[in-house]
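Section 4.2 – Deliverable D4.2 (structural model, holo form)

The reporting period included a commitment to supply a predicted holo structure for the target in complex with adenosine-5'-triphosphate. Inputs used:
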Amino acid sequence: MTITEPAWAKLNLTLDILGKRPDGYHDLRMVMQSIDLCDMVSITFKERRGITLVTNLNYLPRDNSNIAVKAAELFFQETGIPPVGLTIRVDKHIPVAAGMAGGSSDGAAVLRLLRRALAPELPDRALEAMALQVGSDVPYCVRGGTALAEGRGEVLTDLPALPDCFLVVCKPSFPISTPELFAQVRLRQLRCHPDTAGLSTALYNGDLSGVCRRVYNVFEDMLPRKYREVGEIKRQLMDLDAAAACMTGSGPTVFGVFTDEAMARQASEQLRQEYPQTFLTRPVGRCAPADKCG
Ligand code: ATP
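Output (structure tokens):
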């Protein structure tokens, strides 16, 4: 039996760092949004024991340092279900190390698939608690849609869907390491913070321009000069009539919000000439909760 799920990429409409915790993580406050750029993740049960990972990107790890494998191992460990032989197939389309939670989303898709096949009664809360042991972004990726993520990223509050729009997503060719960027954080030097409450209110009011005015990521203010291309892509998106442009997560991917499809298409075509990993995307809603996933 093979079952498949899309693993949606995410964008940060806001990203704020509130403080450093005793456990070494940072306290964050972020508004997250799933988009229709996705990896396809499938699981097939096999007779021989063990987990085999197959992927179209040969440089990705295939052992349990791959987030998809780690998630499967954790699922069996935490549920107490005896491990069965499994082939996980991950067809990657989300750029890697891009601030779009590609790996976290693959891990989340594996958790949703294993629940669907082996433990349909497992509540969302239990799956999300398991997900946090896989990684900070994984609980949000289990759920998807539009959500406020606090704590390490695991304290989730659903928000109303982002009003319909077009999101042009542009990944420059260099990667940015998330740990490297977190190491740069100097809390006292953070002078600007996003208006997360105002953005949430704009979502409740279905007010896209109110959302666009408040899209903001504090990581942009601490980017080393070597990453100045991020600012250049933002400027290009604004020149191409984006209503807002911002870096997502720890970058380097930048997105622009457009209300008009033709303009979004034109912007994505223009940027793609210089940046092949440019995508025209749209927001997507929440993944099916436990009672609808069986
Ligand atoms: P985030 O937005 O959560 O910080 P990211 O989009 O910046 O994540 P990923 O694409 O998830 O970063 O990959 C980060 C690292 O994780 C890469 O160096 C990669 O080798 C490793 N990795 C492990 N499993 C996966 C996977 N299934 N897909 C992508 N990367 C993976």
